[in-house]
């Protein structure tokens, strides 16, 4: 067993997810099943292989710094769960 | 004449020759959706009023012009992860249940420039994570060939809509096979273009280095025409390729003489369904008979592709889906403070598979595991890509199965995530390597379910795989076979 209950709880916190007590063992099993499978990768020596994060040979795609029309504030806010005076509104962070 | 049984190019010719009106054609599809989609459940949102309005406008344009765009007045369906201004775009998630994009994806702008008709937004696995459309937060979609079976996924709604005669064409997205596999399960044609060939601007991100939009159509001719509309560089997508786009309809010629077709042994695994293997092997023989040269090749890292994919895609998903925090758009579930608000929102509004991938991704990226999992997977990606580079030094295209089996029964493997992931063995290597692939029908199983194969091309060489697929299609009548629902 690579992944423990504690690991799942930690990763849930990092992911901003709550894992309920009745589901936690299911996740532990599923993660271990998958990671055991993913161990096939360890069969291959990749010490001298460069990683590929992206298939295209692109670097720093730049454009002219020109002002163009952008989304109107009202539209940008149109899907906000809560808004006030043209701003997104969130629960109080600082007392 | 049953209009819904015709491929899109036949309907286009009828519109152009003023034999039918776009309004009449649109009404035909809307009527079918009303009477039959209750069983298939391919659409999440139907946009009947907007469709009729667009059809009316298309009819005016058709009346005034002798030349029209391929998609002018031609009704189609859009996967519900492609942003449509003013029309809900849910990604089949409770997180975006009420999300109405304030802008259009670039592909939608390109469709609109042709005055096409959009019938609605199609069902999918939540955030495109899955291969059966059972992960939709709303309802599963049923396969139009047999309603007890899955349509494949994640673009299962788009594939089912085209296969059932609820749309003349559709767009989907493919991150690990999500266009090609449902096309195969539903007996239609699906293409994943080269990474960067079609703009991803306005496609809700799942795994940004793998996602690509592409067409799902009744035949290869329709696929070529729609690629002509959607392909091309877009300044709004920094990963879009700035390369000229050929006229793909010029590839609609029957010619495989001397074409070198590579057959990768690694794709014909022991676990493969015998009927699928037989159908693909028969296609290989048929290509040989038509003058193609069959070359045995090896893609030795194929067996590592699934493990690499299911580390890379969730790692990217973890990052992309961190934006769903209950603040700027999407659902919110209240909490005592901001952290509990975000945690409550994500816990309540994401489905099981999405949560599983977010957590696996975070695990693979976290301190202590990054080198062993994520970095290792990226290095494997290099080796997978190099396999293809070496193979394409010897062959023009590669032919392989699309999935190890035909469509399976709804509910049969959904509770076994690893089993589900292993189904993607034939499709994920292309996404890792960024290559184009087209899926097309090559048989019908003894249970009456479609079998598909895929033809894989060099980067940016969609033209050659279209030509190869077209040549095979014209020599067979698989693309003329209709699903059970389309016959009603």
How would you summarize what this structure contains?
The complex is a heterodimer of chains A (95) and B (488). With 95 residues, chain A is mostly helical.
Structure description:
Helix content of chain A is 34%, strand content 4%. With 95 residues, chain A is mostly helical. A two-stranded antiparallel sheet of chain A has the order 1-2. The radius of gyration of chain A is 23 Å and the shape is flat. By secondary structure, chain B is an alpha/beta fold. Chain B is built from 15 helices and eleven strands. In chain B, α2 runs antiparallel to α3 and α7 packs antiparallel against α15. Chain B starts with 7 loop residues before the first helix and ends in a 14-residue tail after the last helix. Classes of the chains: A mainly alpha (95), B alpha/beta (488). At the A-B interface, α1 and α2 of A face α9, α10, α11, α12 and α13 of B. Chain A: Its EC number is 6.3.5.-. Chain A: One of its GO terms (biological process) is regulation of translational fidelity. Chain A: It catalyses: L-glutamyl-tRNA(Gln) + L-glutamine + ATP + H2O = L-glutaminyl-tRNA(Gln) + L-glutamate + ADP + phosphate + H(+); L-aspartyl-tRNA(Asn) + L-glutamine + ATP + H2O = L-asparaginyl-tRNA(Asn) + L-glutamate + ADP + phosphate + 2 H(+). Chain A: Belongs to the GatC family.
